[in-house]
Amino acid sequence: MKCRNTTVSDMEKEYIEQKDKVKQIMSRIPNRICLTSDVWTTVTSEGYICLTAHFVDENWKLTSKILNFCRMKPSHTGVELESVVFDCLKQ
């Protein structure tokens, strides 16, 4: 069984690899990308947002990739949403 530190390290490496892979895929998209967001608040009043990109790939297959999952302070106003989406995309 792996120790906690090894597991955390392996997960971080996998995250970086997958993030780089998504960046490469997104850089090859010749046309439009549609962004969707899902915003919710937990029963303990913690807010979250998940950003997803949707696009048609080079094989004409509709593809969706989660770009980021971020904390979001309530209230979920349009101004707050704009700020959080922009910050999530910069990561």
Automatic annotation (TrEMBL):
Major location (coarse): nucleus
GO CC annotations on file: nucleus
Superkingdom of the source species: Eukaryota
Gene Ontology MF terms: zinc ion binding
Keyword Metal-binding: yes
Assigned keywords, A-Z: Metal-binding, Nucleus, Zinc, Zinc-finger
Record localization: Nucleus
Keyword Cell division carried by entry: no
Alphabetical list of InterPro entries matching this protein: RNaseH-like_sf (IPR012337), ZnF_BED_domain_contain (IPR052035)
PANTHER family: ZINC FINGER BED DOMAIN-CONTAINING PROTEIN 39, ZINC FINGER BED DOMAIN-CONTAINING PROTEIN 4
Protein name according to UniProt: hAT-like transposase RNase-H fold domain-containing protein
Originating gene: Vigan.01G216900
